[in-house]
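Annex B. Sample input.
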Amino acid sequence: MKEGDFAKIEYTGRAAGRVFDTTDAEKAKKADIFNPRAKYGAVLVPVGKGVAVKGLDEALLAAKKGDSDTVKLPPEKAFGPRNGQLVKLLPMTSFRQQKVEPKPGMVLDFDGKAGRVQSVSGGRVMVDFNHELAGRDVEYEFRVAEVFEKPEDKVPALAEDLMPGTKASFSAGTVTANAGEALKKDTDFILSKMRFVSQLFAYVPEVKRVSFTEEYAKEEKAASQ
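Annex B, continued. Sample output.
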């Protein structure tokens, strides 16, 4: 593959033999990391764009459709080395103002940045803002299920990945997308649409304009007997 291609991949990530991420629902359940709200199955990745960790991205650039491989990555090509400056000592009062009682192991959101509580002592809370896997070697097992090279193939693939049921096509720089009835009950529709448009502009340079339509049909009530 080359930079800018879209790859649909299945993968499982492990650290010290333990699964920390996977596209396989059964493996997630077995590793006790299953998320009922997550979407399992092959995922779409813009290759060479830094969406995947560096080492996996490099492995995808050397792969083609149908390939399976396992890559072992040092911290520098995975989640980076640990940075001691990202471990902060914060006052307990800042947590209590937010009605949060911090406990070791809790992962909290700090203005969009995740931090893991390490310890609570003497009115101070030690929070680690490093990625949980920073400083660790990891391993990715992956398979390339599909490859999309042309914009007319990338666009519908991205629509199906982010908004299943949406029909999208590309022609002369313009994307035409129709959500139809598929997203009628999807409360995340607006966010999904924003992600779709932003990723089109970021990863499909041929796209200059996006035209989006939505269709809804009135639900007819069944006649009373």
